[in-house]
Amino acid sequence: MIKRYLIISGVTPVLMCKTTLKETVPVAGSNRGMRMAKKLLIIILALALPTLASSQIFADSKGLVVVAGATGGTGRLVVKHLIAEGYEVLAMVRSLEKGKQVFGEDIAMVQADVTEPSTLPPLLAGADFVISAIGASGKGKGKASPEAVDYVGSVALIDASKSARIKKFIMVTSGGVTWWTHPINWFGGGVLKWKRKAELYLRLSGLTHVIVRPNGGLTDEPGNSNKIIFTQNDGFPSSISREDVAIVCVKALVHKEANNKTFEVRNSGDGLVTSRVDWIKTFSTMVVQSDNF
User: pTM value?
Assistant: First the structure.
């Protein structure tokens, strides 16, 4: 059974399933009538649940964004800035316990895993957008390997997003993905190779998309602290804060000028802090068919 949880401030998590309904929904009448009424209610809730989050709980927002990899270092900052921008968020978590440790009970979350494709359609039901910040450790094996997460898992999420008619899909990958001789590929399970294959699949999917490549080591410095630049040549790396990456992802969601573009972002004294960036101008000067594919 797919487990869908709604974590809302001040409300205990509720597992929406038949067992919960038996315990919490009183129905008057005979035993036979009670059983029939319960079955009918279960069917009604099963049909209504996919749209409940978007139509009632998320009624006054710019749209519902599913964040994959929400409990990661970058993903949790994406959640923060989406909320600040006026979006509603549905955090995808593999562990509900970890999700509550990171977000408390103020963020709606769904337990799902890109390596288990059957968990993804319920996750995306009623959603408008997806931001994927998933990523495997270079030392991961089996279902935790870069191939399983960064490529096969990303493909599953892209396919499910296409079926769910997601309006825009933003993927965080990495600078250096076009460098076939990059040492991270030698010692990290080919992680950059698999990220690039996922990029290629997303471009061919037909989904409106943006591919954001942090070009260099990720840091935990506050956003808006360093000057950043944008490139489309997959050049030499520098560093970039996770929060600046999160801000860029959210701005790419907001502005249609970023649609279907792939770009790198990194620290540089020649750039601007995020609060000074002219986002429309920056995204408009980029090209769709760049030389960094």
Answer: 0.80
